[in-house]
Amino acid sequence: MKKSGRSIHRFGIALAAFALCGMAATVASATPSTQIWIPSTDIQAYKTVHLNFDTYIRDRSNSDSSRTAPVVVIGPTVGILPFPKIQAEVGFDLISAGGDADKHPLYGHFKLGTPEDSLFKLSPAVAVGMYNIGTKSGDVRVGELATNQNIAYALVAKTVPVIGRLSAGYFAGNKKVLVDENGSSDEKGVLLSWDRTMTEISDKLWLAVDYQGSDSALGAFSFGASWAFAKNVSVILGYDIYNEKKTGGENTVTLQLDINFP
After folding, report:
1. Residue 247 · residue 216 · CB < 8 Å
2. Among 4, 46, 115, 224, which one has the highest count of C-beta atoms within 10 angstroms of its own C-beta?
3. Angle in degrees, CA 232, 237, 240, rounded to 5
4. Cβ neighbours of residue 163 under 8 Å, at least 6 residues apart?
């Protein structure tokens, strides 16, 4: 994880919580270092404490004219390894989404990885981890409330001159919680992203596009921009388009505040 004002806006982004096809359950996501929506290969530096405060607001009413409550996510992520070539972070989030899952608001995450060029010359960045580690077990397929998505993932990323950084990976989660519009398990999928600091305009401006597969509530195509207002403070404005409206719901506008200490 880099700490400069030109790059902290890439990381520490929270995901959201979403209603699942009328099953009276919500899916919530805790915050690994991410792009707009998916995890990234970036990792918080040793002893760096990152605080995120994120909101997700639906861009329109539901088909029945009701409004889904905004999601609010707050939590820290901390770098825990002092080695430049092998890094790790852990953290948790408290998530409020205006549903029954608010009774179990705690979600955890962790990540282990290595940065670009650390294994050998021109080696990609590599990261493995878990997120959405919830505290309530259950089977959404039979209408039970559950927050333990327990998603494991692996990613590789490489920065290409002029083009930017390209990332690809795969995830697999709890098949009892991640379901499609028919209530069938859909707990696996690809992770893809592009991001770049727009140095031609300003070192403070960063853009990203990412995609998470599956027709569960986690499946989405997202894009956004960040501006670093200070060395350790940045804000992202993004937009999330869900793969399946019956699970992910109406699209969301997201505003994400990221602060690093020290």
Report:
1. yes
2. 224
3. 130
4. 194, 196
Q: In angstroms, rounded to a whole number, what is the distance separating the alpha carbons of residues 164 and 180?
A: 33
Do the Cβ atoms of 35 and 13 come closer than 8 Å? Answer: yes
Angle at 250 between CA 60 and CA 13, to 5 degrees: 105
- Look at the block and give the residue holding tokens 């290409």: 160
Fold of the domain built from segment(s) 8-261: Porin (2.40.160)
Radius of gyration of the chain (CA): 17
Number of Cβ atoms within 10 Å of the Cβ of 120: 6
Structure tokens at 174: 């709890």
Name the nearest CA neighbour of 127 among 168, 160, 91. Answer: 168
- Strands (E) in 143-251, as ranges, are 151-160, 164-172, 188-197, 205-212, 220-230, 233-242
